[in-house]
C-alpha cells in the first residue's frame, strides 16, 4: 500500500466485518476455540485463578484450569479481501455477564460451547441468546476422557428448539472449529431469511 492506495492504483477495499460470539460455561474451551482458528495472536484477558476467587469459581470437573477470562477473547479470520470475521469470546462466570450485552451488539450469531461434564453451565448462554433472538449453534466440546453422549440426548438435556444446530467439535482443532463457524453463519443466514419471509407474509 502506498499513501492509502494499492500498488495497482486501485483504492483499498473496505472490508465487510461479521461478528460471532463464543459463549458458554466456565472452562468450556472458549479461549482455546478462538485461539485455534484466529489468524492473529488472539487478544486474551486471562487472569490466574486465586484463593480469593475459589468460593465463586467452581472448578469441579475442570480442576486443571488455572486461568479465567475476565473481559473477552478476540480473534480475526480474513475470509476474503472484502470480508473479515471477528470472534469475541465471552467470560464464563456470571459475575462478568454485564459485558455480554456490549459484546452481543451487532453480532451475526453465536456459538454456545458446551462441556458434557458441566452441561448445566450452558443453560444461561442458551437462554441469553434465545431471549434476544440471536441465532446460535451449540458446539459440544469433546474433552479427552469426558463421557460421550448421543447428540439427541444433549439436545434434550439443554431443551433446545429443533431449529438450533448442535455439532460435536474439538475446540483445539482448527478444522473442527471452522466447521462450527460455518454452521453458525449458515444458521444465521437461514434464520434471517425466515424472519424476512415472516414479515412479508
Overview of this structure, please?
The protein is α/β, with parallel strands linked by helices and 201 residues long. 28% of the residues lie in helices and 26% in strands. It contains five helices and seven strands, in the order E-H-E-E-E-H-E-H-E-H-E-H. It has helices at residues 30-37, 100-104, 123-131, 151-158, 174-200, and strands at residues 16-24, 43-48, 67-80, 83-89, 109-114, 136-141, 166-169. The chain has a seven-stranded mixed β-sheet, sandwiched between helices. A hairpin with a 2-residue loop joins strand 3 (67-80) and strand 4 (83-89). It is globular, with a radius of gyration of 18 Å. Residues 1-6 have low confidence and may be disordered.
Summarize this, please?
It contains five helices and seven strands. The chain is globular, with a radius of gyration of 18 Å. 28% of the residues lie in helices and 26% in strands.
Amino acid at each position: 500500500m502506498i499513501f492509502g492506495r494499492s500498488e495497482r492504483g486501485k483504492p483499498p477495499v473496505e472490508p465487510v466485518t461479521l461478528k460471532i460470539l463464543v459463549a458458554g460455561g466456565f472452562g468450556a474451551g472458549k479461549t482455546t476455540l478462538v485461539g485455534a482458528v484466529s489468524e492473529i495472536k488472539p487478544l486474551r484477558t486471562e487472569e490466574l485463578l486465586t484463593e480469593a476467587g475459589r468460593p465463586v469459581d467452581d472448578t469441579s470437573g475442570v480442576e486443571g484450569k488455572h486461568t479465567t477470562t475476565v473481559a473477552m477473547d478476540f480473534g480475526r479470520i480474513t475470509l476474503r479481501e472484502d470480508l473479515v470475521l471477528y470472534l469475541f469470546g465471552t467470560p464464563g462466570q456470571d459475575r462478568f455477564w454485564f459485558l455480554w450485552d456490549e459484546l452481543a451488539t451487532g453480532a451475526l450469531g453465536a456459538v454456545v460451547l458446551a462441556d458434557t461434564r458441566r452441561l448445566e453451565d450452558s443453560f444461561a448462554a442458551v437462554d441469553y441468546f434465545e431471549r434476544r433472538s440471536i441465532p446460535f449453534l451449540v458446539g459440544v466440546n469433546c474433552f479427552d476422557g469426558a463421557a460421550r453422549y448421543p447428540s439427541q440426548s444433549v439436545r434434550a438435556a439443554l431443551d433446545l428448539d429443533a431449529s438450533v444446530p448442535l455439532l460435536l467439535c474439538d475446540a483445539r482443532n482448527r478444522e473442527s472449529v471452522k466447521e462450527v463457524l460455518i454452521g453458525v453463519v449458515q444458521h444465521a443466514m437461514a434464520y434471517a431469511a425466515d424472519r424476512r419471509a415472516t414479515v412479508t407474509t
